[in-house]
């Protein structure tokens, strides 16, 4: 078979296919074999890329920097989401289930696969795919057919700084691969119920991965949007939109505080689209119940028949004696003694 084109062109083409293949079964990915038969062992995920970086972050009691005092409450967030353009990331928030965070009990990085693997079968593991996608001017380890990235320059989206990446024991962690939706966060919001293949696909999905400033990745830990946002405010819209897209793709839920923070960020960029070709299906509003039928009108009362008695004998015969003023058939003539009671003797 012919060799792949060298440099970014070939790598970019391979990475572009990754979202379509992210859910492939991951069995047999312990080693990466390129088209020409050269085996490239998958990289062991560095601690900074995974377990240490995702230290548990407690739920924030205040919004992240820059949002204090401005975060939308539940009602305001729903109003903003409801009025958003249908194809926007803001509108897509309506498709996310909202409930509390599940316990972190049982979480382990290895439940999402062992290190970086080659989910898209392009011959390179995901970490090198992402480095090649996000760095410029990269160089590659000889003999790996432009697979293992040795050096490159990162325009870091989180800090806004330019960072030089150089592979090595003491330098590789300057640039780390961030799970935009942290693995531990996903574990607490639905991933406990996923099977192993789905969790491995999630951990290696390029939509959920960014090459970023290492120390900021460590600072983020396993925080969600309610507890951590990139310091570079101009990147927050794209960052939150990516989190929304990832959670929609995999069916992870959000907490109330997380959803409100996402709505707050996206409200300043209401046209921000969902990345990665993700399409949200907004829940359909339940139809309004049919109005209850009007109650049937009460039947009209029967017309009253005037009652009259010719004399006290007739009153007594009708069982109406003694008769008093106000009784049916009363007549003053029945009260011969003037005591107010008629036909009483």
TrEMBL record:
Residues 1-35 form the signal peptide. Coiled coil: none annotated. Residues 320-329 have a biased composition (Low complexity). Residues 308-344 form the Excalibur calcium-binding domain. It holds the Pfam family Excalibur. PANTHER family: AMP-DEPENDENT SYNTHETASE_LIGASE DOMAIN-CONTAINING PROTEIN-RELATED, SECRETED PROTEIN. This is Excalibur calcium-binding domain-containing protein. It comes from Blastococcus aurantiacus. The lineage of its organism: Bacteria, Bacillati, Actinomycetota, Actinomycetes, Geodermatophilales.
């Amino acid at each position: 078979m012919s060799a792949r084109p060298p440099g970014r062109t070939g790598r970019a083409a391979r990475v572009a296919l990754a979202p379509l293949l992210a859910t492939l079964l991951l069995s047999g990915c312990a080693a990466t074999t390129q088209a020409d038969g050269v085996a490239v062992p998958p990289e062991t995920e560095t601690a900074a890329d995974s377990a240490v970086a995702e230290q548990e972050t407690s739920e924030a009691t205040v919004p992240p920097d820059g949002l204090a005092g401005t975060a939308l409450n539940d009602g305001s967030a729903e109003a903003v989401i409801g009025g958003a353009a249908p194809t926007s990331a803001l509108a897509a928030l309506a498709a996310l289930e909202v409930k509390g965070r599940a316990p972190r009990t049982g979480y382990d990085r290895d439940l999402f696969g062992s290190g970086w693997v080659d989910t898209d079968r392009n011959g390179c593991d995901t970490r090198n795919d992402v480095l090649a996608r996000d760095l410029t001017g990269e160089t590659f380890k000889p003999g790996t057919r432009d697979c293992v990235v040795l050096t490159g320059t990162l325009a870091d989206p989180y800090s806004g700084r330019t960072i030089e990446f150089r592979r090595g024991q003491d330098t590789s962690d300057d640039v780390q691969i961030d799970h935009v939706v942290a693995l531990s966060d996903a574990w607490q919001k639905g991933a406990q119920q996923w099977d192993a293949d789905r969790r491995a696909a999630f951990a290696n999905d390029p939509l959920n991965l960014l090459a970023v400033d290492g120390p900021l990745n460590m600072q983020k830990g396993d925080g969600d949007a309610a507890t951590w946002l990139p310091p570079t405010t101009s990147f927050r819209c794209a960052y939150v939109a990516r989190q929304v897209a990832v959670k929609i793709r995999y069916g992870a839920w959000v907490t109330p505080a997380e959803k409100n923070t996402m709505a707050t960020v996206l409200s300043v960029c209401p046209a921000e689209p969902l990345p990665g070709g993700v399409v949200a299906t907004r829940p359909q509003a339940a139809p309004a119940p049919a109005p209850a039928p009007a109650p049937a009108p009460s039947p009209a009362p029967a017309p009253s028949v005037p009652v009259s008695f010719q004399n006290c004998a007739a009153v007594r015969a009708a069982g109406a004696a003694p008769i008093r003023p106000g009784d049916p058939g009363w007549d003053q003539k029945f009260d011969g003694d003037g005591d107010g009671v008629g036909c009483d003797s």
